[in-house]
Write a structure and sequence with these properties.
Helix content of chain B: 25-40%
Catalytic activity (chain A): L-glutamyl-tRNA(Gln) + L-glutamine + ATP + H2O = L-glutaminyl-tRNA(Gln) + L-glutamate + ADP + phosphate + H(+)
Structural class of chain A: alpha/beta
Strand order of the largest sheet of chain A: 1-3-2-4-6-5-10-11-9-7-8
Subunit structure (chain A): Heterotrimer of A, B and C subunits.
CATH architecture of the largest domain in chain A: Alpha-Beta Complex
CATH topology of the largest domain in chain A: Amidase signature (AS) enzymes
Oligomer: heterodimer
GO molecular function (chain A): ATP binding; glutaminyl-tRNA synthase (glutamine-hydrolyzing) activity; transferase activity
InterPro entries (chain A): Amidase, Amidase_CS, Amidase_dom, AS_sf, GatA
Distance between the termini of chain B: 54 Å
Strand content of chain A: 5-15%
Largest sheet of chain A: 11 strands, mixed
Strand content of chain B: 15-25%
Shape of chain A: globular
Protein name (chain A): Glutamyl-tRNA(Gln) amidotransferase subunit A
Number of domains of chain B: 3
């Protein structure tokens, strides 16, 4: 493998602008890495031809614009399969979108391409972003490049943005897009030792991203460093008139905000996140993280987010409710998979057979839960009550942010687990992966997962910084300080 | 309300085998917003395009597509609300109504369920001069139209046309205040008139721009009054909803049939099932479409792709300031300012273009005279030829010119009609005064000339003179002879007067 793939976005940017390397060289290195990493199953669609064309165009632009070229010009990125990319397979890792090649581009990816970024391929994920282990994918699970010390067992990269996490951690691309509905960027980032940022709801346009739960979905960057994530986020974010929930706010210079100077900041440590049965290593990591922030000059205070325990159940009512409606359009009529019909089959049979064949079991489960909680007689008890909980959780955070600048929590309740390990478990056991992350989605806040250490078997662990609404710049600066203190430099051994 | 005084009409009474029955009707009128593009997409709303050509990615519900509200449609809903004297809700919410159907690509219709943009209002439904029914409006909400499924083009396949998918509709929901088939038809007519005045909907029922779902129940005399006092729906009969009516005539026929059907069931000891029915105009009957049990569970919930729709008082005030004078106010003004009958005022204000034409004619002239000419002569001719006012071959200015010629006695009333006929056909665009001059159509009002003609006729017909002196009504014969002798140009009023003087009758 060429060392070029080891570069961060910031490093590659400097070399590209100085014309020490070309985007074509960098892209070829990534394409080679992709080809050598089939065992990771991180890439669902390789796009080498497109990558080479984009790289050549980026080189021309770099030659013309030099230091003035956009930060992402010539940078090879991977794109989660949930993003619609024009003319390129975009299936949300679902059989129901079999063969779907959209004639349009998502706003977020369009913004990246406008800035000269290069697409190396589409990345694996949980089907319709529903899952925490990438195991619900129609392409089969993506594999975590990390392995426990002395073990050959395949581990999950987490989910739903498992392919993105795996690809970045394995250095198949310099960064990747993810989406986060309940933790789908932050949990896989933590499982693979990379940085994942879920921005404030409304910061990135949802236009052209296959919808899972519209009020929670948010695109964000997954990268090797906080700086890279800041660079990517700036390229992805911004108002989009095509998304009514996108915020008409200027995008700050996130990279310029990375001072690492957090002296005088107050960081909240929410007591409700110290959960029963939490592994001691996670607890210890959290304490270490708080100490690192204190060492950097911040003050930590215990805070209370009293409605935390209701967040997961509320999330697993609201997200499936929205999903059940959002996924109604996959009916076999206009695009994607259509079941073969028998004689006498009517339109209802077309729906039922196409959807039964096209959706995997987890998606079917959530569609059914969603339809149930919205149905007459249950709406008040489930959906409406969940919305009330959501309001209370939001208020918890609002009150907390009256006294703190950011909140520090674990990103996940464990390190990466084995593929298939949860196969026989209750689905709720899998849902518990989101316990530290869903609150952020319910409240619409920004959150960042930062690799902070490794567990006893050498697997990465991450902490989460939760920021104020629209406070990504400050949140990233604190994440940057944590990153510098943690000094996490471990990389997975290349076994694939 | 700015309207003329009125009294409420009697409710329609149907005589059953076992007594009298009354009808109670509530309506949901779907009015297509007169907008160029759809409610949540930029696709065109033009009627009659090739199937599936006015379809955007949003309308086709492609993955990742999102709705964006069309501000123009919002404004039209607010206009409609203000036009119906309704409360405008500054905050309204779009909900999803979930169900599967091939002409509904999203799998849900975006509508407003709990928080509509317009709240309670009222409409005055004119039945005859001095008689009107005040119908309360419960709400108006904005929603998407569905596409069209076509089942009769192929024996085994159905076809779908998505051109109409996503077009903006205003659903105008009335209270059950309509008390007979004629009132129902007049209610739709009045809504249509107001919406056309506002420019919010073209009201074209053939093209489906205005369609009505009609809820019909029957009750015993006195029950309805009890309902109005208590608000208790249980004192009314079980209702059936007749879906998707797009003709005033069919609405009347369907209600009449449906009421009689329900009465027959009740008098037979049965009970009416709450259900949705369709009217078959060929057979003149309604038939069951689906029962209450088969009704969908639409799983309404707020559409998370759209933020609540928020407008402010200043916006509503701006829209209010931009409203035209509405039919009730205009009619009242016509009666009061021009001294015309309520009937004439109704005719003139039926369409705002007609009213504008009339006012142009009446400007600086006698209003009643102008009204007579516009209604009897102009509308008469237009109706005969099936033209609307904007297709009139004669302009308001020309008609005014004709009226002026008649008023100044330059031509007779009959002469005025002749001039109008000429302007209508071979003399299109001509100036009436110039035309009368050129064609020598001016009437003779010179008393000397008329007297000479009268003398001549009297001298030639001594026997008739004697008869006329016996029976004064025969004087008309002399007038006719004089008119004939003068080639119709003599001023008939003057001729009449002189004939009577000379005959001494």
């Amino acid at each position: 493998m060429s060392d070029l793939t080891r570069l961060t976005i910031a490093e590659a940017r400097a070399k590209l602008r100085a014309r020490e390397i070309t985007s074509v060289e960098l892209t070829e290195a990534c394409l080679a890495a992709v080809d050598a990493a089939d065992a990771l199953n991180a890439v669902s669609a390789k796009t080498p031809q497109k990558a080479r064309e984009m790289a050549a165009a980026a080189d021309a632009r770099l030659s013309a614009e030099g230091e003035g070229a956009p930060s992402l010009c010539g940078i090879p990125l991977g794109i989660k399969d949930l993003f619609c990319t024009e003319g390129v397979a975009s299936q949300a890792a679902s059989n129901i979108l079999e063969g779907f090649r959209p004639p349009y581009e998502s706003t977020v990816t369009a913004r990246l391409w406008e800035r000269g970024a290069v697409m190396v391929g589409k990345l694996n994920m949980d089907e319709f972003a529903m899952g925490s282990s990438n195991e619900t994918s129609c392409y089969g699970p993506a594999v975590n490049p990390w392995r426990a010390k002395g073990s050959n067992r395949d581990l999950t990269p987490g989910g739903s943005s498992g392919g993105s996490a795996s690809a970045v951690a394995a250095e198949l691309c310099l960064g990747a897009t993810g989406t986060d509905t309940g933790g789908s960027i932050r949990q896989p980032a933590a499982f693979t030792g990379i940085v994942g940022v879920k921005p404030t709801y409304g910061r990135c346009s949802r236009f052209g991203i296959v919808a899972f739960a519209s009020s929670l979905d948010q695109a964000g960057p997954m990268a090797k460093t906080v700086r890279d994530a800041a660079i990517m986020l700036e390229g992805m974010a911004g108002f989009d008139p095509k998304d009514s929930t996108s915020a008409d706010l200027a995008v700050p210079d996130f990279e310029a905000a990375l001072t690492g100077d957090i002296r005088g900041k107050t960081i909240g440590i929410p007591k409700e996140y110290r959960m029963e049965g939490m592994p001691a290593e996670i607890d210890a990591l959290w304490d270490r993280g708080a100490q690192m922030l204190r060492d950097a000059g911040a003050k930590t205070v215990e805070i209370s987010l009293p409605h935390t325990k209701y967040a997961l159940p509320a999330y697993y009512v609201i997200a499936p409710a929205e999903a059940s409606s959002n996924l109604a359009r996959y009916d076999g009529v206009r695009f994607g998979h259509r079941a073969k019909l028998g004689a006498g089959d009517a339109i209802v049979d077309l729906y039922e057979k196409s959807r039964a064949e096209g959706f995997g079991p987890e998606v079917q489960r959530r569609v059914m839960i969603g339809a149930y909680v919205l149905s007459a007689g249950y709406y008040d008890a489930y959906y409406l009550r969940a919305q009330k909980v959501r309001t209370l959780i939001k208020r918890d955070f609002e009150q907390a942010f009256e006294t703190v600048d950011a909140i520090l929590t674990p990103a996940t309740p464990s390190a990466a687990f084995g593929i298939g390990e949860m196969a026989d478990a209750d689905p709720v056991a899998m849902y518990l992966n989101d316990v530290f992350t869903v609150t952020v989605n319910l409240a619409g806040l920004p959150g960042a997962a930062v690799p902070t250490g490794v567990d006893s078997s050498g697997l990465p662990l991450g902490l989460q910084i939760i920021g104020k609404p629209w406070g990504e710049a400050e949140m990233l600066d604190i994440a940057y300080a944590l990153e510098r203190s943690a000094g996490f430099t471990a990389r997975p051994d290349r076994w694939w | 309300m700015e309207a003329l005084d009125y009294r409420e009409p009697q409710a329609k009474v149907l005589h059953g085998a076992q007594g009298d029955w009354e009808i109670v009707i509530g309506m949901e009128v779907h009015a297509q917003v007169l907008s160029k593009s759809k409610l949540f997409s930029g696709a065109s709303t033009a009627f009659g395009a090739e199937p599936n050509t006015n379809v955007s990615l949003v309308d086709a519900a492609m993955p990742g597509m999102l709705p964006v509200i069309n501000d123009f449609c919002v404004e039209q809903a607010v206009r409609a609300g203000l036009g119906l004297n309704a409360r405008i809700n500054l905050r309204s919410v779009f909900d999803r109504k979930n169900y599967f159907y091939p002409d509904l690509p999203q799998g849900y219709q975006i509508s407003q369920f709990k928080h509509p943009i317009v709240g309670e209002g009222e409409v005055l439904v004119d039945m005859e001069p001095g008689v009107a029914r005040k119908v309360r409006i419960e709400r108006i909400h904005l929603e998407q139209d569905a596409g069209k499924s076509i089942h009769d083009m192929d024996p085994s396949l159905s076809f779908v046309d998505l051109n109409r998918t996503g077009v903006a509709l205003m659903e105008i929901v009335s209270r059950p205040d309509i008390r007979g088939p004629e009132e129902a038809a007049e209610y739709v007519r009045k809504l249509r008139q107001i919406l056309r005045y506002l420019g919010a909907c073209d009201g074209n029922m053939q093209e489906g721009s205005l369609r009505a779902d009609v809820n019909v129940s029957v009750c015993k005399p006195g029950d309805y009054e009890r309902f109005r006092e208590t608000g208790d729906f249980s004192v009314l009969g079980t209702r059936c909803e007749i879906k998707n009516m797009n003709s005033m005539r069919f609405i009347q026929q369907a209600i009449d049939y449906e009421a009689r059907r329900q009465i027959a069931i009740l008098e037979d000891g049965g009970s009416v099932d709450q259900e949705t029915r369709l009217y078959d105009p060929n057979k003149g009957e309604t038939r069951s479409m689906r029962s209450k049990e088969e009704a969908h569970d639409y799983r309404y919930f707020p559409d998370p792709d759209l933020l609540p729709l928020e407008i402010d008082e200043a916006y509503v005030a701006r829209v209010r300031d931009s409203l035209p004078e509405l039919p009730d106010a205009k009619k009242k003004r016509f009666v009061e300012a021009y001294g015309m009958t309520e009937y004439d005022a109704s005719v003139l204000t039926a369409e705002h273009e007609n009213a504008a034409f009339f006012e142009a004619v009446a400007e600086g002239r006698d209003g009643k005279t102008a009204a007579n000419w516009v209604i009897n002569e102009l509308f008469g001719r237009l109706n005969k030829e099936g033209h609307s006012i904007d297709e009139s071959p004669v302009s308001a200015q020309q008609l005014g010119g004709v009226i002026d010629l008649v008023s100044s006695d330059a031509i007779s009333g009959k002469g005025g009609k002749d001039v109008l006929d000429l302007l209508w056909s071979e003399e299109k665009g001509a100036d009436p005064a110039e035309l009368v001059e050129r064609k020598g159509m001016k009437q003779v009002s010179d008393t000397g000339a008329i007297e000479a003609a009268v003398d001549e006729v009297i001298a030639a017909n001594p026997d008739k003179v004697a008869q006329a002196q016996e029976k004064p009504s025969l004087a008309g014969w002399f007038v006719g002879q004089v008119m004939k002798a003068t080639g119709g140009k003599a001023n008939p009023k003057a001729v009449n007067q002189i004939v009577r003087e000379k005959l001494g009758v």
